[in-house]
Amino acid sequence: MTQSPSDNQPNAQLSFGALLQHARQSKKLSLEEASSELFILKRHLQALEDESFADLPQAAFARGFAINYAKFLGLDAAEVATSFDAVYPDALKHLASSSELPLRPMGTLQHDNQSRIHFNPLLILAVIALIVLVVFLFRMVSNASKDDQAPTVVTNELTTTEQAQGAAINTQGTDANDSQNLSNTSLQVTLTDTATINITDASGNNLISGSQTSGDYKLSGMPPFKIDINNVDNVRLLLNQQIIVLDQYAIGKRASFELSL
C-alpha cells in the first residue's frame, strides 16, 4: 500500500517551529524528555518550537540545536536547517556578525560519561600514614630477626683419641695455670710496731719468721698459709689485697690459724 501525497501535505504546510512540535507530539515526547536526551535546555527547545529566536543563544549554536532536535525527532536535518535559515530574523544575524565577542557555547547541558573522581584529603593522609606504619613495622621485624640470629659456630668432628689427647692437654694446662696462680698468691703484712710473725706456705717455704720491726712486708707463696702472730694489735694482714680480720683468730694478743683462698 503506497502513501498518498496528501499524507505528507500537513508537514509541508507546517512552519519551522510547528514542524518540530508536531514531530515531538507524534512521538508522544514531552519537552522535558527531549531536553534530557539531547542535553539541551528545555527553554531553548521551547524557543525553537515557538520560533522565539531572541531567547536562543547565538545563531550558530541555535542552528546546531535545531539540527540535533530534527535528527532526534526523525526529521530531515538538512530541510530543517534550511527552514531555520529562512525564518531566522535578519536583525539577529546582523547582530551576531557585528559582535566582536567570540562565540560562546550556551544552553547545553554538560554530559560527562565518566564519573568524576573526588579525592578526600583525610583519606589520602590516612593511606600515607598506613604506608609509613607498615614500613616502620617491617624494619623493626627485620632488625629483630637479625638480632635473634646466633652466630654460626663451625665445629670439626674429632676422633675419640684426639678428644682424649685434647682433654689431657687442657687438663695439664689448667693444672699448671692453677698452680702458677696459687704460687703467686700475695700476702702483705704491715706492722705498726714490733711483733713476732711466722708464716709458712703449702710448699713448706718459710715466708717470714721471728720478730719483725714496723714496716710493710710483701710476701708471695702457695696457699693455704700457716700463720702465727704475736701482738696482733700491731699487725695488719692482706691476702690478695683483701683485709684479713685478725681479731676473729686472736686469743688475747696471739693468733694462730691457717689461711686459704
TrEMBL record:
Residue ranges annotated for the Cytoskeleton protein RodZ-like C-terminal domain, each copy included: 189-258
GO molecular function, one term: DNA binding
Classification of source organism: Bacteria, Pseudomonadati, Pseudomonadota, Gammaproteobacteria, Moraxellales
Keywords: Membrane, Transmembrane, Transmembrane helix
Transmembrane region(s): 122-141
Gene source species: Psychrobacter frigidicola
Any single Pfam family the record assigns to this protein: HTH_25
Entries under InterPro entries matching the protein: Bact_Cytoskel_RodZ (IPR050400), Lambda_DNA-bd_dom_sf (IPR010982), RodZ-like_C (IPR025194)
Record's protein name: DUF4115 domain-containing protein
Top-level taxonomic group: Bacteria
